[in-house]
Amino acid sequence: MFEACERDGFCLMGERLLLRDFVASDELSVHAFASDREVTRYTGWGPNSAEDTRVFLRGVLAQARSAERSEFNLAVVERDSGRLVGSAALRVTSREHARGELGYVFHREVWSRGYATEAGRLLLLFGFERLGLRRIAATCRPENVACARVLEKIGMRCEGRLRSHVFLRGTWRDSVLYAAINETAGS
């Protein structure tokens, strides 16, 4: 389960992680992973320049102040150390159809610690229990086996391959679509 907290803005608390709104002072921590070519290898952005990271932070800070918030781009922080180690996001893509999408990215130093799994579970619970979403989807590149494994661990099912889904670094790439359904929502 998760615990919602409203200290200095929005946050979700897990066993080892705190997912909270970004703050301007997160810039160096975000840039540490967002500028890493290996971390951004499968993303539709990056590796970030310093200006790219500043633009990202300005955007997520504005989203957090939105009266009708539909995007939750959150800093992932280790509860014990207080260190920002990644970013996790849940976006409501349709309020009418109760749909959302999730994603995450982590600093290479914390790969294989189960952080993506914990953050993904927190986002699914939040989306289903608090936002009332019925369907939450995610995509990953077919060759990103670690991401696919996380999506399956958090209860998402593979729904198929989207051919030529994204234009990434000069070439069209396929994506694999995953989704989780909240059978009790939207009846």
From TrEMBL:
> What is a single Pfam family found in this protein's UniProt entry?
Acetyltransf_3
Which InterPro entries is this protein grouped with?
Acyl_CoA_acyltransferase, GNAT_dom, Ribosomal_N-acetyltransferase
Q: Where is the N-acetyltransferase domain?
A: 40-184
UniProt name for this protein:
GNAT family N-acetyltransferase
Q: Which source organism?
A: Amycolatopsis cynarae
What taxonomic classification does the UniProt entry list for its organism? Bacteria, Bacillati, Actinomycetota, Actinomycetes, Pseudonocardiales
